[in-house]
Amino acid sequence: MDSITRCSVIVVGAGVSGISAAKVLAEKGVEDLVILEASDRIGGRVRKEDFGGVSVELGAGWVAGVGGKESNPVWELARNSGLRTCFSDYSNARYNIYDRSGKIFPSGVAADSYKKAVESAIQMIRHQEANHHGGGGIGGADLSKLSEQLSDPKTPIELAIDFILHDFEMAEVEPISTFLEFGEQEYLVADERGYEYILYKMAETFLFSSEGKILDSRLKLNKVVRELQHSRNGVMVKTEDGCVYEADYVILSVSLGVLQSDLITFRPPLPRWKTEAIEKCDVMVYTKIFLKFPYKFWPCGPGKEFFIYAHERRGYFTFWQVRLIYI
Q1: Range of 263's domain?
Q2: Cα 325 vs. chain centroid, distance in angstroms?
Q3: How many folded domains does the chain comprise?
Q4: How far apart are CA 89 and CA 186, in angstroms?
Q5: How far apart are CA 93 and CA 75, in angstroms?
Q6: DSSP string, 253-279
Q7: What gap in Å lies between CA 40 and CA 38, rounded to an integer?
Q8: In this structure, are 200 and 269 located in the same domain?
Q9: For 158-192, what is each residue's pLDDT tens digit?
Q10: For residue 130, which phi and psi values (nearest 5 degrees)?
């Protein structure tokens, strides 16, 4: 027979949201709780690994959304825990463009190429809008010709700038209102202890820990949740290893990817309006490639954190970031 554990609240997921929720509950006097985490650690999408003798972030690497009208809660956590960060100025990359021989393009050439690409894109959009609304716009054939004249990059530097402007990272994401309220600045986590340090600092406030390890029995690692039954009488959560947990309430803090993959069965099923909302959300993939070279050949100093590689092939390892020295 499956073992049954009873508590007041079950928190599924030990990422930032799960640990934060459990911390608030404990501060409000709800200590009879259980945290179920599928992996062998806390952190969720925050994860560091040793690479070439240094710590690198495989998951989240920035605190995004700083400097706005409202304070980003993650930024507050980072500051309160003493996490070391560095402001990321992506705009400087446009002036740090290198060709395949390792020579940097003169700043004037880079600036002119960037300005030309931006103006070309603006003109194209204006002509498309005018044609769409019938406000004296040009015809389809002429528009195609204009498109070729204005925005067809040919040289390596033009191809690189075109890629950065239109395809790099989150170019197609609609603005998120809460993110805009937090601000548009981003800070890179440049701390040898890793981004996960803020999670452990939070956990230490309500979970028993010793020498940087969480030993509290309320945190259950390697517990993959497969089924969640809910009714007016409470909730029942079943894990892959056959354990059963019963509680009055459950807080589900798993990732959007888990919810969209149907890894967790809900009984009864979630209402249609909720499943449709889940499906409408997009999951973006940010691919990081870490390389270690035998000697340093990259630019250093203020404004040199990011640079662009101009190649004859569009999008061929275009955007680079220099690893910062931990202070």
Answers
A1: 4-61+195-280
A2: 22
A3: 2
A4: 8
A5: 24
A6: ---HHHHHTT-SEEESPPPHHHHHHHH
A7: 7
A8: yes
A9: 999 988 888 876 544 555 666 778 988 999 998 99
A10: -65, -40
